[in-house]
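Example record

One chain of 506 residues, shown exactly as stored in the release files.
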Amino acid sequence: MERQEYREFAADPAELARIKTEVMSSSLYNEDLAPTGPEERTWTTYNIAALWIGMAIVITTYTIASGLMAAGMNWWQALLTISLGNVIVLIPMLLNAHAGTRYGVPFPVFVRASFGVRGANFAAIARALVACGWFGIQTWIGGLALDALLGAVWGGWAAVPGHTAITFIAFWAIQLAIILTGVEGVKWFESYTAPLLIAGSVALLVWGFYAGGGVGSVFSNSAQLQQGNTPFWSLFWPSLAANVGYWITLSLNIPDFTRYAKSQRSQVVGQSLGLPLTMTAFSFVGIAVTAATVVVFGEAIWDPVTLITRLTAGLPVVLIIAMIIIVLAQISTNMAANVVSPSFDFSNLAPKRISFRTGGIITAVIGIVSFPWYLYNSVGAYIFTWLVGYGSLLGAIGAVMIADYWIVRRRQLDLADLYKHDGRYAYSNGWNWRAIIAVFVGVVPVVPGFLNAATTPGFTGVFENPSFFDTLYTYGLFFTFFVAGLAYLILNLIPGRAPAREPEAT
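Predicted structure tokens for this chain:
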């Protein structure tokens, strides 16, 4: 086949086979981390969009507006903040996704170009540990849904000692079984569950408008969802940073998926349709349906598991179907957002000893010990500390990756050298200290604000009498992203072994 047919990719089949043969013996290589060939590039626009639908339609998306409204926003301010945050995060998402499709490499291999073949583990494990925490949160929520499902099937289930812990472990085990099927199993699961998740969301919205007395009635009652009175602009920036932080993890490891895309157009269109639209739409469903519960039940019920359990009392068949959809939503999100990346990341620590599946098992185990019930049950810990805090760190890492790939190297990488200890990405003993320093320059100024937020009981995103460093933390990853990216570009002006741009591909 002529090279022209692979103009979007870095190598044609013959060249790719040569590269794999050249680096196969390297300790930095295994088949899971190897660049994908044409036969593996099977993800269409629909598959990429379905991936995002599966990740975005989840209980945490449904309830994320609750934290904003509890702090003082009204429904349209919360929805605007969520929507804008997801449009913003789409930009670094698409920028990093490009390398995955062009070179066929996962995130921990791609990041070797900017951080070094050993320094890549710094970025990869920072990303992996966050995913493990998220895996625990989503597993806890899925366990609660499974607990409600069993309670509907058997009235005596609630009397079983430790029933919530049992369903948490059971839900964890179900996901572990899926992990062992590999990435192709994730693709199949996401593609087939997406239509079901959309149908369930529409059904909830229709009920909300019907039972709540119409669109106007529902939104007039949404004012009762506001619990705080903090001014909008005081909440806006930390809330926007939190919503960007919601998916900033995926903006780093999106090459884990786009390496399987059929073309750059497939991944760009699929992500542009799947991410911001689904996040905004499902958040809207959460607000509208919760506002309707004020009319129907006289109180706001943000938790969809609690709501559905109440709505289907006496209708066990309907409850079972609804809870199965919720369970599928949790699994689809966890598999794509919180298992694929850390599985590759842990594999990158020791490619010859840790496979993708072994990395998935490590992820699942760490997820249990991350105290997910605490993070989920505290709005302050969940949105304004967890999301803003780790978003600041990962934003700095993402900035270095983007600056290196798009500005320093102008999208040109040496594919073979990504798997060599003595190649151009070896830097100083495998570490590109320019990248590490740039990340610390961006992150260190927000650490005092993070510590203040983490130690403030009931923190809701606004500091009383904020210091200079508290203000920096308020802007979170916006600050770290621009400072770290700029620092990296400046550091590359210093003479020495700075990253060199590869020759243009022919």
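Notes: The chain is about 70% helix and 0% strand.
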